[in-house]
Structure formats: structure tokens, C-alpha cells
Amino acid sequence: MAAMNPCPCGYYNHPKKECHCSPSLIQKYMHKISGPLLDRIDMHIEVVPILYNELRASKQEESSATIATRVKNAREIQSHRFKNEAGTYTNAQMNSGQLKKYCTISPEGEAILKMAMEKFQLSARAFDRIIKVSRSIADLDNSNAIQLNHISEALQFRSLDKSSWGQYKN
Asked: Is the whole-model pTM more than 0.85?
């Protein structure tokens, strides 16, 4: 797990404070993380500050107990999946042969994954990690096959791979 600011001043994409960093400065800042290191991080999530009113709003969220049950069920699915695979207990530990064996992807999912791989010029390591995260999302969804929505969600967790990072401001 790692954390970093989105730019040198820390206010890129902030809802209330203005970032004074130029796009080139943001790009230079982002390039401090080497590609090979970034490639080894499975999920990249941009966390923007939340305004007080949003924190206090009463909206229905999934309860912690419900989430815990989904995670427990997903872990049981993985335990069952890997019961005969020595040394493999979770999706994150799958090797390439196991990816082929256990990660059936719908044709629509394959198409979006291919497009993302080509558009963002992702590495083979990123490809494997996207499939592993997709498999975990599918397990949380209690789905045997990896569907388009599972691939799409996993791709959203690779935001720092996108070539457009730091090139525009909201």
C-alpha cells in the first residue's frame, strides 16, 4: 500500500482549492514513480477530499456487515477454487497457467480489456493484475465468469496507468 499527493502542491482536482501546478510540473511529479514500480501496484485509486455536507448527508450505503459477508463468501470461493493448488490461496497468487484455467472472460470483457491494453500500452504484468482483480470482483459478485462490468471496474483501479493523468484540470 502506498499514498502520494496528486501534484507538488497537493490540490490537483481539489473541489475547493486551486492547484497552481502546470501540467508539465504534474507530469514531472508523477514520473517520480517509476513505471516498473507503478506496474506492481494492483489498484490505483484517486481519493479526492470530501466536503462536510457530503460527509453529513444521510444516504444509504452498504453496511459493513454486508460487505464483510461478501468478502467472506469471496474468500470461500477462492479457498474452494485453489484447494488442489499447492501454495495458491487467493487470486492474487495465481500464476499464468492458473489465470488461463480460472479466469474465463466474456467476449465483451475481452474486447474492452484488449482496447485498454492497446490504448494505454499496458504491460503483461498490468494485464495479469487486471485479470486477477477482475476475478476477485467477479467472486465478490458471485459470478463464475468475468463479465464486462468486472473488467471495467478493475480497469478503473488502474488510473495512474492512463496517459492523460495530469494533462487537464477540472
From this structure: no
